[in-house]
Amino acid sequence: MYKAKAYSAASATSPVASSTIPRRDPTADDVQIEILFCGICHSDLHSVRNEWSEFMPTVYPIVPGHEIVGRVTKVGSAVAKFKPGDLAAVGCMVDSDGTCPECRAGFEQFCPNMVLTFNSPDKHLGGVTYGGYSESIVVDQKFVLRVPSNLNLAGAAPLLCAGITTYSPMRRWGVTKGKKVGVVGLGGLGHMAVKLAHAFGAHVVVFTTSPKKKDDALRLGADEVVISKNADEMQKHAESFDFILDAVSADHDINAYLNLLRRDGNITLVGAPPKPLAVAAFGLIPRRRSLSGSNIGGIAETQEMLDFCGKHNITADVEVIPIQKVNEAYERLLKSDVKYRFSIDMASLKSE
Questions:
Q1: How far apart are CA 230 and CA 139, in angstroms?
Q2: What are phi and psi of 281, to 5 degrees?
Q3: In a 3-state reduction of DSSP, which class is residue 165?
Q4: Which residues touch 331 (CB under 8 Å, ≥6 apart)?
Q5: How many CB atoms lie within 10 A of CB 114?
Q6: Tens digit of pLDDT for each residue in 161-186?
Q7: pTM of the entire predicted model
C-alpha cells in the first residue's frame, strides 16, 4: 500500500479539498497509472452531495472522478497488454465478477457485482474505491483501456463517460450513413452525440430551446438545428427520425419527440430527469415506436469507441482547469456554464 495525493469531500456539505488516500500496491494483474487528466461528470457532483442517496448512498470521504486518462507507471507480472510509458484510460468501472451472464456477454456495466471507480466496496483495501481526482490509480488490467496516441488527452478524458454513454446507444440502434438522427439537448452529452452521429455518417438534427446554440451545433457537426419551442419547426420533422438521443436532465415533454419518430424509430434516454416523464401510449403504439434507456457500455465496446474516436479524431470540447478550481467548476456546472466539459489537469495536484 502507498499514499497518493487526492481531492476528496468529507461530507455532503463539505468542499472537495486536498487530502491523502491509500492505494494498493499492484498485484500480478494490476496496472498502476499516473493520472494526467480527469474529466468532471455531473454524477461526480451528485455523488459528492449525496443527491442519489436513495439508490446509491455516498460513503465519505469520497474521491470522485471516472473519466481518467494517464500514463502507465508499473504493471504486474501477469499483465501483457500494457507496459510502463503507455497511455491508458479508466472509465466508470474497475471490476466485475467476470462470470455472470452479463459479463460473459460483454456487458460488464450490468454485472450485479460491478465495482464502480469510486464509492463502491473495495475488496483490496476495505472501505470504498477512490476515483480519478488523484495523482494515481491501480486497476485490474481487464478494466484498463488503450488511448489512441493522436488524441488530445484533456479532451479524451470525457470520452470515458460522455463518449461511451452516447456511442453505445447509437451502436445498439444502428446509427449509420443514411439514418436521420436527433439529439435533444446540447450539453456535455449532447455535444458528444452530435460529433459521433456525424462521424457515423448520419443526418444530424439538434433540438434545443436556445437559439444561441445554433451556430455551435452546426460547428459540432449538426446538419440542422430545431428550436424545440417552435411548434411549426417541430411539425416539419414529424414521423421522420430513425433514432433520437435524449440528453436532457430537466423535465420536458417526451411525447413531442415520440411524434417525430418514423415506424420502428427509437428514443433513448441518457439524461435523467428527476421526475417521471409522462408517456402517451398512442405516441408509441400506432408506429411501433420504442422508448429506452442506456448507461455507458462494456469494456470491449468502450475500447471500440476510443478506437473510433482515434480514427475520426474526436474528443470532447473541454475547458481545462487546475484541481484547485473544482468547487468553482461544480457551481458553474449547475448553471451549465461550460462548453462542454471540464477536464482537470492533474499536474496541478503536484503543488499541493
A1: 49
A2: -55, -35
A3: helix
A4: none
A5: 19
A6: 999 999 999 999 999 999 999 999 99
A7: 0.96
